[in-house]
Write a structure and sequence with these properties.
The chain is an alpha+beta fold and 77 residues long. It has one helix at 36-49, and strands spanning 2-3, 6-8, 14-16, 28-29. The radius of gyration is 18 Å and the shape is extended. The mean pLDDT is 78.
Length: 77
């Protein structure tokens, strides 16, 4: 999830986090990366969850993916 500091919403008004005009409806971007079939299955549930906003689908090209293997210990957080 990414939180924006300013956005132009569906209401055609600027939403901003500037001190003089604090907004409670700042833009959020929630990004889900998964197989196309799984995303397609999730869309009906998403339709129930989202009451206001914009949902987009976009293809991605994975340039590099490095996962943790079972025999490699977790890194400290």
């Amino acid at each position: 999830m990414l939180r924006g500091i300013e956005g132009f919403g569906a209401s055609s008004h600027i939403h901003t986090s500037r001190l003089l005009s604090l907004s409670e409806d700042l833009p959020l971007a929630i990004i889900i990366v998964d197989a196309e079939e799984r995303i397609e299955k999730f869309l009906p549930q998403l339709d129930e969850l989202i009451t206001e906003g914009l949902v987009i689908l976009d293809d991605v090209d994975v340039v590099r993916y490095v996962g943790r293997t079972r025999d490699r210990p977790e890194t400290l957080r």
